[in-house]
Amino acid sequence: MTHRKLFTSSIAAVGIAIVAIGAKGQPDSAAVQYTDFGSTKTPVGPAFRAEVQPPSSARIKEFRIPITHETIEIADGVTYEGWTFGGTVPGPTIRVREGDLVRIKLVNESPMPHSIDFHSARIPWDVAYRSIMPGEELSFEFTARDPGVYLVHCGTPPVTLHIMQGMYLAIIVDPKEGWGTEVDKEFVIVQSEFYAQPNDAGRPLQADFVSAMDKRAKYVVFNGKAFQYKANPLQVDLGDRVRLFVVAAGPSFRSDFHIVGAIFDRVYPDGNPLNVLEGVQTYTVPAGGGAVFETVFEEGASGVGLYPFVTHAFADAEKGAVGLIQVRSPVVTASEDPTTQ
Ligand SMILES: [Cu+2]
Predict the structure, then answer these.
(1) Residue 116 CA, ligand 1 centroid: distance in Å
(2) Arithmetic mean of pLDDT, 277-303
(3) How far does the centroid of ligand 1 lie from the alpha carbon of residue 115, in Å?
(4) Of 55, 231, 49, 220, nearest to 149 (Cα)?
């Protein structure tokens, strides 16, 4: 098994800055990490980027989150008039550590009222989660006291509509003492469903609120697009321990999360390591909830091959909530190959 500890220094994308606020030589923990999701759009092609990087050690993390209305692709060749945090569905994954101070600046760049609700925050709803009008901004902060993986969503009425339009993302709060295992790959999977109906000729599909109230989804998807990881499997190497952060955004469906051909050696309901389950085949993530899943792909036990991940509520899987994990043999270079030495 080749565990390669994930590095913590990979926060380098455009729009992310770590600014030291103390004296020269002060440790990173005295810094502020600023991320503008207006300029760090999560790549969505050929598939929404599911890989997540570890959090930085900055103890104050600031996020500017623009709300925009966008045309999104919810299945191959199927476009939809969506509403977003940060220009994509789902919105960008936010990752912090337990104890961090999280500062949010929400900017409404859309033509209608919206809001943001962090399930990871203990904060008055009427203060932080109130709706803001087009052109308005809202700033608030909270301490990430509770480790886990959580849903973040727009809470403006009707909430069903705002969620089904695409207004959700995942926030990961890493435990202060870590997860207890070293992993090789980490992925975020946000399940949600779309209720779509035709629009005027030549225009993207639009919301079908009647179907949403009847829970008759057109598509059920992982990370915003039906079957995208079937066409573009998540890549892992033989021997990898893999951690998946799974969130069910709904608006109304749960995720009965399962990997065909693997067993989770650990599941942390809500992503809190105090809640540990061992030897799990399928675990239900409720709408509005999250869980952390870990499994190992090793020779003789989930070795080289393809592994579908699904919601095992199969009527939902048939509508798009199916992806693949591809396990490969790591490429051995000549200098690493003992037979050539
Ligand atoms: Cu909204």
Answers:
(1) 8
(2) 97
(3) 6
(4) 55
